[in-house]
Amino acid sequence: MGKVIISAALGIAAAAAVMAAPYAGVHITSTQMMMMAAALSVGAAVAVLTRTVADKAIGKSRKDLLLSSQLKEAGQLIARFPHGGDMLSLSIKPDTLIDRLEVVDNPGKCITRDIMVALKNSGSTKFNPVELKRLFMALKDQPGFIHLVLLDSHGEFVGYIPGFYAKREFTGPNAEVQIAKYVDDVFADDNNSVNLRQIEGAGKSDIISDEAKISEAIVKMAGGFRRLIVLRRGYHRRPIGLVNFSDLMSETLSEQTKPSLRSMLGR
Length: 267
Description:
By secondary structure, the protein is an alpha/beta fold. The chain is built from nine helices and eight strands.
């Protein structure tokens, strides 16, 4: 029980050191706010990893087994992209005729279906932001549209954009500007995919294999990444879903604290 308290205290202290700044009269900019968010992530990760180190001498607990498990063995941690069944898969290229897509031509038939959208770069031809806006206007009222993936000309993962952001920002008055920045600019230079983190998305380096250990995901996300794209066996052509920081920490911390709570309650 004491180790749980110590671990939690260290995690809280890591975040509190940054959170105390506003109360000391320090002006907080938007950049600093992002740093604060990263500090909270680190704080939570420190709590988990400190407890892990403290338990090594005791032998493997249920928590240890969880942390050493592969992501694919804890399926509830992966928010999987829709596939199979009645799922509507849209693979959009710069020369795709938007008017011929079922979701544009007959949106009522798609309203109950999961929709997976992939924008695939063709190399030299850029996406027309005006045409893409028309696509997202059609997707805006589709509840099954949750994920948008960017793939390069070889079909390999380049970036991820949450469906809610695309519905809101790719359909508004500045849609063409947003699409140019977060789609065309990323395809022009995939190093720009790092900017997708600004919209709660993920770039080409925000990835992890489904065969990686859960502890590896925690360490990687301790740097402030809100989500990681999961690749089947690490293959860039096979993005299968994503891991959210909040889900990962919730599951890990629950495995850590449940036994302690049972002990406190005498169960």
